């Protein structure tokens, strides 16, 4: 049926009006639980991160390349930051996914938006993970004056 | 035009229609045609309960229930039917429970029961707890449960289809039909509201379950859609209507609005008071007081108002007092009706008495049927393949006054019976009978005439005049003069009706057109009601004649059977043993012939009715 | 008989005995009739009627239909809030026209009346209810039991009966479902009403079909699409705590899964 494009137009009857497909399975359930659980864990991770970076010792003034490099040389902070990255990205991506589901009116719009979203998330997650694990504060062959003090153990 | 073929077609999707559908759809190919979505039916507005002598909370048995029903109906009840009603009540309630109906429970987990008007122990000794209930929304729960089970059974519904004609193989209005000759119902013609298309349903068996006709009155608890369609269609096709003069006025309608406040309010301890604060029912029914049958309470209330003891600025209502009840008790047992008082009148029932006045509630009369639900075409011959159940039918289990909670019972017991008989008949019957040559011609002509009439009377004006005259002249108190005045007005309105026009000329969802058609039904029903009331020169149950205040068993212990016939038909030759009344009201264009049907008496001799 | 009431609480000067106070009210109604000259376009029409103190929006609609414009189309039946025919959007909120007193929706300004949102409009205030009932039918809204039927009633304690009392009140008017922003988007969400009716059976101690119903509502379009905006609870003319019921169904699913 034709749909007039004026603001006062009544939406055209959406026929056939059957539920398009049934997707039984626990995905949405787990996703719902994940959002709540990851939210709680992220609270701890994020505030722990902020506390360590901003409050402990000299606080914000201590942050520099050496500080970050130093932290990532410890497996504890690698895991912490990795968790923070993954949970924040999955939490955020899933949140935006539900927003897209709620507000996109057509399946095609929904498909495009979600593809972009997943692509962007995947890039960020992969790059971030790579950085955390492959980060070397003292790349060989770099000019010594550019390297932090930790590269020169006594 | 579309044609459909079914074994059983049920017209109406209220309690009786859906109960019949549950029986029939498993056995035969069944369709339910309804002018509303099923869950909109007015069964859902019933509040108080459904009577059955389960004896869950105190001693009770079906024989006492039968007696109460017979006495409540002022002995105009067919006692064999009343006995079936009371006996099968128990299984009907249990059926509903098994279908999932959430009844209120006793501490032991059984179905709880409460007191209701006219239901007594040991033939009138004291009020008994017989009404099975779910708060004050028993009807809602019944309607929902029946619909849920129809969903479960995959019953086919045609929603928002108006049945506008009944097809039979003989024209009962004009043909002379021999006693014992076979007349068959062959189908119905329906109008699809959404598209304006006409559909013909050919069926081996048809069940009418179209409900009542409360909209002939102005103050009524009935829905806007209760316009007596089924009764009027049967009547126009030459079938009789039985006991139409008996209309029940429910004592406690919200004053001025007519919205129903259940008798359960009094069953739970509510008291009626006049302007002086007096519990006036003590004077009218010393034993069971506020729980007397509805006709008696309604009349007592109207009498209080008439004698100047009404409350309010116009002294035109009495008060229903719940203030002595615990608010928690009210919330648990009567949540909906107290909300009605708050929403519509701004009255807080915890602390203030609620203004109430009788409201037109239930047609005891209707299309005559036997105990199998088969429709009668005179005092004893049936129309093959035609059944009726619920308020549209007159079995007659309610006689001249229905007891509260017996209507939810009626739809379940006789809905089930009609459904079973119809399915059995359809299975045994041969192929579909031929439809008349042009089955839709009458309906199409009627619709076209109404739609094409350029400018005329407004439907609303005619309807308002009808409802006002019925309220003024044919309500709780009637006299020969008032009834004749009502009849004169109705005759005049019938003439005006021929000139009504509608503004909406479209095909899609044309409710304007359907309201006009419904007005025609209302006029016919009001007319036959008043003619039958004029003829009955006695007072019995819901029919009270001030000029004849006593019951007259020697002359009127008979059911009225009203037939509509062309003026040309010879009066005596109606074939239906015109019988005792033999009264003819000739209107020039057609006439109403009043015959009679004997009342079936088994156990109980008529006695004076005292409570 | 007139509807004049003694109400000691009102401060306003008592009108003369027998006189019914009346006021003028304007309704701004969204019209749509594909057969009219506007075609698929919907338009706003304004009507002014004289109303009385206890009149409801439905009474005003009737006055318009019966006295001014017979083509105005809406559904109604019982007229006191138990049949669920006349859910509509009145001043932007979903309500039953027969349960909304004119004096309670600020009759000084025009009252806007629109069809409920999210369902295809058929004509004026009438929408196609079929999708709504289709969702209802999908959740198996009937008692499911196994084994032999008892001869008498099934026993159920008063507490067990009370557990699902709230959701038995539903009249299927669609006020909740059509107030839900998630439903508005594409109408695929089962909607609050279907979940409420599933709740009615899931928490009925006599029922044995909870697993199947939970499975159905575990769908992508099931309970997990609820964003707890509470529009449904606010819209329900029967006062059902709809959002709470939905959360209870969610909780039942989580307890089942873990």
UniProtKB/TrEMBL annotation, chain A:
GO cellular component terms, semicolon-separated: membrane
Keywords: Heme, Iron, Membrane, Metal-binding, Transmembrane, Transmembrane helix
Superkingdom to which the source organism belongs: Bacteria
Magnesium among keywords: no
Intracellular or extracellular location(s): Membrane
Record field: transmembrane: 29-56, 76-96, 116-135
GO molecular function: metal ion binding
Main location: membrane
Alphabetical list of Gene3D superfamilies matching this protein: Fumarate reductase/succinate dehydrogenase, transmembrane subunit
UniProt keyword Nucleotide-binding, yes or no: no
InterPro entries: SQR/QFR_C/D, SuccDH_FuR_B_TM-su
Descriptive protein name: Succinate dehydrogenase / fumarate reductase membrane anchor subunit
Species: Krasilnikoviella flava
TrEMBL record, chain B:
UniProt-listed Enzyme Commission number(s): 1.3.5.1
Coiled-coil stretches: none
Keywords recorded for this protein, A-Z: Electron transport, FAD, Flavoprotein, Membrane, Oxidoreductase, Transport, Tricarboxylic acid cycle
Domain named FAD-dependent oxidoreductase 2 FAD-binding: residues: 7-408
Cofactor: FAD
Active site: 294
Pfam families: FAD_binding_2, Succ_DH_flav_C
Domain Fumarate reductase/succinate dehydrogenase flavoprotein-like C-terminal: 463-611
Metal-binding in keyword set: no
Co-factor binding details: Flavinylated by SdhE, about 5% flavinylation occurs in the absence of SdhE.
InterPro entries: FAD-dep_OxRdtase_2_FAD-bd, FAD/NAD-bd_sf, FRD_SDH_FAD_BS, Fum_R/Succ_DH_flav-like_C_sf, Fum_Rdtase/Succ_DH_flav-like_C, SdhA/FrdA/AprA, Succ_DH/fumarate_Rdtase_cat_sf, Succ_DH_flav_su_fwd
Homology family: Belongs to the FAD-dependent oxidoreductase 2 family. FRD/SDH subfamily.
NCBIfam families per the UniProt record, alphabetical: sdhA_forward (TIGR01816), sdhA_frdA_Gneg (TIGR01812)
Record protein name field: Succinate dehydrogenase flavoprotein subunit
Species per Swiss-Prot/TrEMBL record: Krasilnikoviella flava
Species lineage: Bacteria, Bacillati, Actinomycetota, Actinomycetes, Micrococcales
Automatic annotation (TrEMBL), chain C:
Domain named 2Fe-2S ferredoxin-type: residues: 23-119
Catalyzed reactions: a menaquinone + succinate = a menaquinol + fumarate
InterPro entries: 2Fe-2S_ferredoxin-like_sf, 2Fe-2S_ferredoxin-type, 4Fe4S_Fe-S-bd, 4Fe4S_Fe_S_CS, Beta-grasp_dom_sf, Helical_ferredxn, SDH/FRD_Iron-Sulfur, Succ_DH/fum_Rdtase_Fe-S
Family matches, as CDD domains: fer2
Cofactor note: Binds 1 [4Fe-4S] cluster. Binds 1 [3Fe-4S] cluster.
EC nos: 1.3.5.1
4Fe-4S ferredoxin-type domain segment(s): 160-182
Coiled coil (UniProt feature): none
Gene Ontology molecular function: any one: metal ion binding
Highest taxon in the source lineage: Bacteria
Entry keyword set: 2Fe-2S, 3Fe-4S, 4Fe-4S, Iron, Iron-sulfur, Metal-binding, Oxidoreductase, Tricarboxylic acid cycle
This protein's pathway: Carbohydrate metabolism; tricarboxylic acid cycle
UniProt GO BP: respiratory electron transport chain; tricarboxylic acid cycle
Cofactor(s) required for function per UniProt: [4Fe-4S] cluster; [3Fe-4S] cluster; [2Fe-2S] cluster
NCBIfam families, per database record: dhsB, PRK05950.1
Family listed: Belongs to the succinate dehydrogenase/fumarate reductase iron-sulfur protein family.
Name listed for the protein in its UniProt record: Fumarate reductase iron-sulfur subunit
């Amino acid at each position: 049926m034709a749909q007039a494009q004026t603001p006062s137009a009544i939406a055209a009857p959406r026929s056939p009006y059957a539920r398009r497909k049934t997707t039984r399975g626990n995905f949405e359930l787990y996703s719902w639980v994940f959002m709540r659980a990851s939210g709680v864990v992220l609270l701890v991770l994020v505030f722990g991160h902020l506390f360590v970076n901003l409050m402990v010792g000299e606080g914000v003034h201590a942050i520099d390349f050496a500080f970050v490099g130093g932290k990532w040389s410890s497996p504890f902070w690698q895991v912490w930051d990795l968790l923070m990255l993954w949970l924040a990205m999955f939490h955020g991506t899933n949140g935006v996914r539900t927003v897209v589901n709620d507000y996109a009116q057509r399946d095609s719009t929904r498909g495009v938006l979600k593809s972009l979203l997943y692509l962007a998330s995947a890039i960020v997650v992969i790059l971030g993970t790579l950085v955390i694990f492959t980060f070397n504060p003292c790349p060989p062959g770099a000019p010594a004056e550019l390297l932090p003090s930790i590269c020169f153990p006594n | 035009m579309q044609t459909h073929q079914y074994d059983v077609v049920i017209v109406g999707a209220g309690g009786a229609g859906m109960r019949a559908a549950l029986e029939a759809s498993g056995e035969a190919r069944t369709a339910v045609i309804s002018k509303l979505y099923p869950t909109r039916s007015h069964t859902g507005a019933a509040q108080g309960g459904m009577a059955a002598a389960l004896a869950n909370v105190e001693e009770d048995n079906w024989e006492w229930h039968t007696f109460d029903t017979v006495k409540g109906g002022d002995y105009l009840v067919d006692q064999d039917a009343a006995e079936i009603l009371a006996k099968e009540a128990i299984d009907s309630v249990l059926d509903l429970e098994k279908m999932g109906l959430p009844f209120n429970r006793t501490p032991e987990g059984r179905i709880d029961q409460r007191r209701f008007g006219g239901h007594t122990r040991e033939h009138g000794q004291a009020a008994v707890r017989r009404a099975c209930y779910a708060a004050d929304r028993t009807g809602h729960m019944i309607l929902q449960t029946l619909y849920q089970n129809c969903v479960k059974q995959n019953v086919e519904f045609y929603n928002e289809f108006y049945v506008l004609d009944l097809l039979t193989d003989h024209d009962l209005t004009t043909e002379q039909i021999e006693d014992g000759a076979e007349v068959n119902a062959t189908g119905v013609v329906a109008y699809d509201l959404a598209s304006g298309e006409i559909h013909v349903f050919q069926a081996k068996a048809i069940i009418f379950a179209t409900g009542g006709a409360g909209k002939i009155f102005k103050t009524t608890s009935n829905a806007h859609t209760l316009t007596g369609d089924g009764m009027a269609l049967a009547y126009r096709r030459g079938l009789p209507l039985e006991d139409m003069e008996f209309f029940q006025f429910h004592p406690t309608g919200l004053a001025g609005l007519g919205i129903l406040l259940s008798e359960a309010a009094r069953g739970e301890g509510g008291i009626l008071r006049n302007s002086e604060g007096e519990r006036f029912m003590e004077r009218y029914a010393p034993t069971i007081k506020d729980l007397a049958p509805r006709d008696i309470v309604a009349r007592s209330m109207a009498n209080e108002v008439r004698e100047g003891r009404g409350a309010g600025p116009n002294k035109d209502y009495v008060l229903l007092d719940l203030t002595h009840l615990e608010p928690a008790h009210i919330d648990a047992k009567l949540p909906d009706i107290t909300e009605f008082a708050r929403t519509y009148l701004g009255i807080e029932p915890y602390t203030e008495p609620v203004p109430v006045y009788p409201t037109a509630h239930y047609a005891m009369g209707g299309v005559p049927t036997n105990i199998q639900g088969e429709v009668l075409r005179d005092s004893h011959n049936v129309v093959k393949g035609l059944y009726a159940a619920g308020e549209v039918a007159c079995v007659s289990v309610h006689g001249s006054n229905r007891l509260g909670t017996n209507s939810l019972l009626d739809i379940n017991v006789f809905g089930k019976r009609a459904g079973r008989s119809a399915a059995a008949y359809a299975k045994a019957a041969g192929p579909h009978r031929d439809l008349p040559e042009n089955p839709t011609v009458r309906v199409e002509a009627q619709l076209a005439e109404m739609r094409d009439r350029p400018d005329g009377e407004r439907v609303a004006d005619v309807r308002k005049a009808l409802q006002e005259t019925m309220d003024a002249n044919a309500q709780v108190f009637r006299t020969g003069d008032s009834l004749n005045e009502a009849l004169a007005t109705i005759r005049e309105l019938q003439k005006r009706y021929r000139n009504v026009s509608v503004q909406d000329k479209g095909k899609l969802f044309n409710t304007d057109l359907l309201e006009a058609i419904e007005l025609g039904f209302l006029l016919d029903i009001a007319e036959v009601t008043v003619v039958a009331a004029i003829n009955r020169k006695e007072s019995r149950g819901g029919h009270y004649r001030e000029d004849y205040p006593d019951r007259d068993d020697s002359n009127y212990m008979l059911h009225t059977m009203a037939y509509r016939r062309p003026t040309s038909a010879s009066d005596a030759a109606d074939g239906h043993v015109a019988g005792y009344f033999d009264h003819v009201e000739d209107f020039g264009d057609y006439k109403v012939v009043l015959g009679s049907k004997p009342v079936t008496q088994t156990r109980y001799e008529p006695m004076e009715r005292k409570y | 008989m007139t509807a004049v009431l003694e109400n000691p609480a009102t401060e306003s000067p008592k009108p003369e005995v027998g006189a019914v106070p009346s006021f003028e009210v304007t309704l701004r109604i969204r019209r749509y009739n594909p057969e009219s000259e506007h075609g698929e376009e919907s338009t706003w029409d304004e009507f002014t009627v004289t109303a009385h103190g206890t009149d409801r929006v439905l009474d005003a609609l009737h006055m318009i239909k019966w006295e001014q414009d017979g083509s105005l189309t809406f559904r109604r039946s019982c007229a006191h809030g138990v049949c669920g025919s006349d859910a509509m959007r009145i001043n932007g909120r979903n309500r039953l026209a027969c349960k909304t007193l004119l004096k309670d929706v600020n009759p000084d300004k025009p009252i806007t009346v629109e069809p409920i949102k999210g369902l295809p409009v058929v004509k004026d205030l009438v929408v196609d209810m079929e999708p709504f009932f289709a969702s209802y039918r999908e959740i198996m809204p009937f008692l499911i039991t196994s084994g032999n039927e008892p001869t008498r009633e099934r026993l159920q304690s008063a507490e067990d009966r009370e557990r699902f009392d709230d959701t038995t009140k539903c009249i299927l008017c669609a006020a909740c479902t059509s107030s839900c922003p998630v439903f508005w988007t594409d109408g695929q969400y089962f909607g609050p009403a279907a979940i409420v009716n599933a709740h009615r059976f899931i928490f009925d101690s006599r029922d044995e079909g909870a697993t199947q119903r939970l499975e159905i509502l575990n769908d992508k379009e099931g309970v997990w699409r609820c964003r707890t905006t509470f529009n449904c609870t606010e819209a329900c003319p029967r006062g059902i705590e709809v959002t709470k019921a939905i959360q209870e169904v969610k909780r039942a699913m989580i307890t089942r899964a873990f």
